[in-house]
Amino acid sequence: MQVVTLGPAGTYSHRAAGSIADDGAVSFRESVTGIVAAVADGEFDRGGVPVENSIEGSVDESLDALADRAVSVVQEVVSPIRHALLAQGPEFSTVASHPQALAQCREYLAEHYPDVSQEAVASTARGVERAREDPSVAAIGHPANAGSPGQGAGEDGDGTLQRIAENIQDHDSNATRFLVVAPESERSEAGGKTSIVAYPGANYPGLLLELLESFADRDINLTRIESRPSGRRLGDYCFHVDFEAGLYEARAQEALAEIEEVCADGWVKRLGSYDTTHVVG
Ligand SMILES: O=C(O)C(=O)C[C@]1(C(=O)O)C=C[C@@H](O)C=C1
Prior knowledge:
By secondary structure, the protein is an alpha/beta fold. The chain has helices at about 10-20, 30-40, 60-70, 100-105, 105-110, 125-135, 205-215, 250-260; strands at about 5, 25-30, 45-55, 55-60, 70-80, 85, 95, 115-120, 135-140, 160-165, 175-185, 195-200, 220-230, 235-245, 265-280.
């Protein structure tokens, strides 16, 4: 199984994707759009993308890529995220990391490093590279990145970067949800959860209520609903909905038939049904 995720080596996505790769071998792209596109284009069997964090919320780029490309979702991976502050020494003037990681440590940085500037980079591991290259830069990332270059997701390191502080996320329960993306042809109806994207292509009072009632009337629990701009015009939205039922279930099929009627002027994309795994580490 060829798996692609957010790189370089040592990202949280790498750790999550490693759990689905047969031999732990994972390839990298520098954007989640690039990962979803690589799976849609048949370059890889599976892609791992972050979609949601318990502190910072949605990874919008992932949601948009899932709506736009011909892919399915075949698994979700939930992982605790425990950030470390990594640097060559205790003195630095910049902290570099993925915007999600910087945001998840917002209170810690404001309290301990109010005068240090923040630099958003493509991934936590890219921030670690910056810190290895430049002693004035610290990184926020997984503590195992204190190892030597290329050892990112492996064992604890050789002291190239010091762990200046650990567990610096603003809430102990910090966790990120990753989705495992597959070619559209591998979409499954089996699983305890389902993700869809609904684009009504219309706008009238009670439209969203109609969508939600399709689930409520059948006792289907929603775990998430997120609106994203369609990109067509201001005020025009797609709805990303996750719910606790498999597409194989009659109640899910009935709800979706009703939603397809509500979205007759738009479209409904069934990303697929899947189960959840938890990856610690
Ligand atoms: O930069 C990384 O290490 C990633 O895997 C990306 C990402 C994200 O986009 O949310 C994944 C988990 C953490 O929430 C922080 C960053």
